[in-house]
Amino acid sequence: SYELTQPPSVSVSPGQTASITCSGDKLGDKYVCWYQQKPGQSPLTVMYQDSKRPSGIPERFSGSNSGNTATLTISGTQAMDEADYYCQAWDSNTAIFGGGTKLTVL
Amino acid sequence: EVQLVESGGGLVQPGGSLRLSCSASGFTFSTYAIHWVRQAPGKGLEYVSAISSNAGSTYYADSVKGRFTISRDNSKSTLYLQMSSLRAEDTAVYYCVKGRSSVFDAFDIWGQGTLVTVSS
Q1: Which residues does B contribute to its contact with A (CB < 8 Å)?
Q2: How confident is the model at residue A85 (pLDDT cuts 50, 70, 90)?
Q3: Which chain A residues have any C-beta within 8 angstroms of a chain B C-beta?
């Protein structure tokens, strides 16, 4: 079955750039979405179709997808961006999620 | 404002059944695919099931196939998940999620979730 692999954790200093990766076989051939989840809250869609931001998502969030790796980049990271981030793609009529990455802003 | 409100969660014994509901508002329910995604305590997100806008197509994760049934009533803007033969590993918060358009498009708006606990 298809798998998406994310690093368990990423740390970044406030104001710096955070990059969260998501790896899968020929992932660049699929659309990737990213979801942000803060403690005790429902997930929030922050990126879809690799690099499109839903309405209301700050411009500091950007995305890319090529080869076997998709990347969510947060420029000028703020304390409010601290959360779990999940990547997701569709394979064989099933939504596949990565294991999630805990972003720590310190 | 687009809203999805889940209900029907609770404590159920192993082998038991439960029906979840998701009431939608703020958008034309009948034109969007809707999904169920779950999250076990302290764990990541897991896809459960999806249904197309006209209920003509349904999809299930292997872990729930044959035990769960997704359905919708477009006249009531409501999504359902009938769960049977429940197991301890089905314990999770179940989220109702609006798709951006078709089934295989991105997840768009998430509900607040309803907790299902399977335990004796």
Answers
A1: 35, 37, 44-47, 50, 59, 61-62, 95, 100, 104-113
A2: very high
A3: 31, 33, 35, 37, 42-45, 48-49, 54, 86, 88, 90, 93-100
Strand partners, B36: B49, B96
Q: pLDDT tens across B66-92, in order?
A: 999 999 999 999 999 999 999 999 999
Distances from the Cα of B29 to the Cα of B2, B57, B104, angstroms: 10, 16, 17
- State whether A42 and B106 contact (CB < 8 Å): no
* Nearest residue, CB atoms, A49 vs list B44, B95, B106: B106
What b/e string do you get for B23-61 counting C-beta neighbours within 10 Å, with b at 16 or more?
Answer: bbeebebeebbbbbbbbeeeeebbbbbbbbbeeeeebbb
Q: Which of B75, B92, B81 is nearest to B24 (CA)?
A: B75
Q: Which amino acid is at B35?
A: H
Q: Which residue of A has its CA nearest to B58?
A: A93
Task: Kindly tell me if the per-residue pLDDT of A36 is higher than 90.
Answer: yes
Q: How far is A105 from chain B (nearest CA, A)?
A: 20
The pLDDT of residue B102 is 87
Q: Which residues of A16-29 are buried (b: 16+ CB within 10 A; e: fewer)?
A: eebebbbbbeebee
